[in-house]
Amino acid sequence: MAKIKHNNFIDTVDEVFAGAKKEGVLHLYAEDEYLNGRTITIKGKKMFHFGTTGYLGLEQDSRLKEAAILAIQKYGTQFPLSKSYISNPLYAELEYKIELMYGIPPIIAKNSTLGHIAVIPTAVRDEDGVILDHQVHWSVQNACQLLKLRGIPVEMIRHSNMDMLEYQINKLSSKCKRIWYMADGVYSMFGDFAPVAELMELSKKYPQLYLYFDDVHGMSWQGKNGTGYVLSVLKELPHNVMIMVTLSKTFGASGAALICSNHELREKIKNFGGPLTFSAQLEPASVAAAIAAADIHLSTEIQVLQAELAGKIGYFNDLLSKTSLPIIVQNNSPVFFLGTAMPLTTYKLVQSLFQEGFFVNPAIYPAVPVKNTGIRITLSRHNQKEEIKDLVEAVEKFFPIALEKTANSLYKINRAFGKDKSIYVQEIQTNNTGLKVQYEKSIIKINKTMWNEILGKQSTFDWDGLKFLEDAFSNNNSTENDWDFYYFVIKDDLDKPVLATFFSFGLWKDDMLAPESISLQLEQKRKQNPLYLTSKVLAMGCLFTEGNHCYRNESHPLAKEAMEILLEQVDIVYNTLDANLLVLRDFDQSLELDTVFHNHGFLKINMPETAKIQKLEWESTEEFINSLSSRSRRHFHEEVLPFEKSFDIVIKDKLNADEMEHCYKLYKNVKNNNLAINTFTYPIEIFNKMINHPNWELILLYLSSNESEEKRQQLVGVMFCYKNCNYTYVPALIGLDYTYASKFQIYRQLLYQTIKRARTANFKKIDFGFSATFEKKKLGAIVYPKIAYIQARDNFSMELMGMLQNETVR
Known about the structure:
Its cofactor is pyridoxal 5'-phosphate. The protein contains 28 helices and 26 strands. By secondary structure, it is of the alpha+beta class. Strands 14, 15, 16, 17, 18, 19, 20, 21, 22, 23, 24, 25 and 26 form a 13-stranded mixed sheet that branches. Strands 3-9-8-7-6-4-5 form a 7-stranded mixed sheet, with helices on both faces. Strands 1-2-11 form a 3-stranded mixed sheet, with helices on one face. A hairpin with a 3-residue loop joins strand 23 and strand 24. The longest helix is centred in the middle third of the chain and has 21 residues, at about 300-320.
C-alpha cells in the first residue's frame, strides 16, 4: 500500500561532486609535460603540490623509473595471463624482497581494492563475524558486502570507539568462531591512527578477536624497512592480525600485498582468491619499479627518507601550533585536515590557495560528513621548508577571508567537529539588514491571522493544528512522542513577513526513509532495544505534517538575506540542543536553494512524493468519474464503485472508549504493516485528544449487515481527518482490518469516501500526503515530487544502513 520512491545514494553523491566541479576544485587535469612531485600545473597555473599520497616521493626516484623502462624493453607493456598459470619473470624477485621486508611471504595483488576482494571472503569463514570501523576505507566495506550474501553477520561501530567494539564482540561471541575487526592503520582524511595497542589488549581479553588492517596510508614512511604504521607498533605480526599494504602511494610503484603469518590460510588465498585467479597481474614495469623500491626499503636509506619526511612534518606542526587554524587531528602523520565545516568555505579557500600557487585537496561528502567538510593537506619529501612556510602563511591569510565571505566562524567549525562542547545561545535580534526575527517556542505567541494567511490551509499546520500538535506531543511518557516546537518569523521594517516556518525537535528512527528491507532488519534489533539507531532531530515541520512548511516571499528584495538569517538562527538552536540531525524538508526543486543549502553544509535527498486534489468542483458521482482519465475510470468502475455498497459509511467527531480502542487497533495494523515510512507508533492518548478537538473527524467503514459474517456491523476501516481553515481536508492517518482489506478493497474505498466527504463538506482541496501515491493518482490526485536537505553530525547511521542495504534478514 505505501510504496514510495526512496532516495538514491548515488544521486546524492553526484549532486555534491557536481557542485565541487562547478566550483573548479574537483575532477581536474594536470597539464605538466613533465612531473617532478614538487609542483603541478592546473589550468595554466603552476602550484606547489600539497595533495599527493606519495609521502616519500619515490614515484619520482630515477631508480624506479629506470627499472620500469628496462622492464618494458625486455618484457613488454604487459604479461597478459592470470598468475594462476604463470607469473611474469620479475614476480619471484618481488615476492622474495617483500618477504625480506616482513619476514613473511606476501601475496601480491593488482591493487588494494582487488586485494581486499580476494582476501576478505576467503579469510572470513561462514561461522565468523565481522565488525567494521565506520571510517574504514570504502574498499574494505565493499569487500564485506560479499560476506553478507553468505549470511555472515557484519556490524559497524563508530570510529575507534572501543566501548562500542567490546559491546559488539560480546554480542557476536556466542554465535561466531572468529570475530574480525577491520580498520585502517592510518585514516586517509584526518590522518589519525588506529588504536593498535588497545586493540591487541582487547584481543587478549577476547581470543576470538582477529584484526584486519588496511595500512596503505601508513606504508613506507613508518616502521622498520618501511613496513608501515601497524607493524611499527606491533614489531612482529601476531597470528590474529592481517595487514594489507600498498606497493603504490608512498612505496612508489603499483600493486598491493597481503601480509599474513598463517601459512595455510595464505596458501588458500593465493590458490583461489577471486581477483588473484581471474584478474590480470601487475605489468612488468610495475613489478620492476616495486623491486627497485623494495631495495630502498631494505637498505638504511629508508631511515634517512623517513627522517627527512618526519622533519618536515615536525616543521609543519610547529608552524601550525603558532596559529589558530583548526587542524582537526594533531599527530605526526603526513596527513593534515583543516576543518571548514561548510562546503562553500572549503571551495573559497581552495580557490584562493590555487591562485596563490598551492594545490590542496577539498575533503567533501561522502569521504567526510557534509558538515565535516575541510581541506586535506598532505606533505611529502618533495615539499621544501620555504614552501611549507609559505603555505601556512597563505592559509592564515585566506582562511579568515573565506570565513567572512561565507558567514562562517571558528566557533562553528569547532562545534561541527566536536571541539567545543559549550552551549552557545545567541540573542535573536534586529540585524543590519533591517530584518527582524521573531523566535518563539509556542504557536500561541504567533499572530493567528498572519500565520494562517501565509502558512495555513496546508496539512495539519494551520494555527489551530499546531496548537493541537503542541498539546498532543508534550509531556508524554514516551520519549519518542515528546516534541518541542520552534517558530521563526522574519519581517521587514514595515512588519511584513518575508519568511516564516516552524521546526520540531524529537527522536526519529534513522531508517525513516530507508528501503523497507533495511527497516525490517532494524526492527528486529529494536525488539530488544526500542531506541536502537534513533537520533535527536531538529526538523522543519514535524512527523505529523507534510507540505510547504516554509513561507518565502520570493519577490521581496531581502528574500535571500532572510533565508541566510534563518539558517544562522536554526544552526544556533541545532547546536544548543546538540541534535544529531538537522532536516529542512518538503521543498520543491530549486537550483537556487540547492546552492544555498549545499554551501551551508546540507545534502539534498529525495522525499517521498506527495499527493493532492486541488479542485473539488464536481456535483455528482458521474461528474467525478468523468474528471478521471480513461484508465482511472476503468479502475474506479472495477475496483472502487462496486464495493461501496458493501459498507455503511459513518462520519463521527466523537467516539466512546470501545470505539476508540477499535479504531486505534486498526491504526496499529497499518502502522505495523508499513515500513516504507518508518516512524514510531503514536500512543492512544494522541487519538483521544483528536476526538476532543473540533477540527478532527473520523470516516468509519462498517461492513454492511449483508456482508458481515457476524450479526452486528463490523468496523473494518477508519480515516482520521483534519479540517484545516474550512478549506483543506487532510486524511492524516488510516486504519484497516487486513482480514477484509483485499476482499473489499477497503483502502481504495477509504480514499474515495475521503474525497466524497471533502466535497460534501465544501472543502476546496485535499492534502493526501505521502505514500501510496499511485493509488491516489488513480482517484484524481496530482503527485508532486518533494526534496529535503539534511545535515548530520557524522555519517555513521547512513553508512551502517548502506551496509545493511544488501543484507538478507537472518
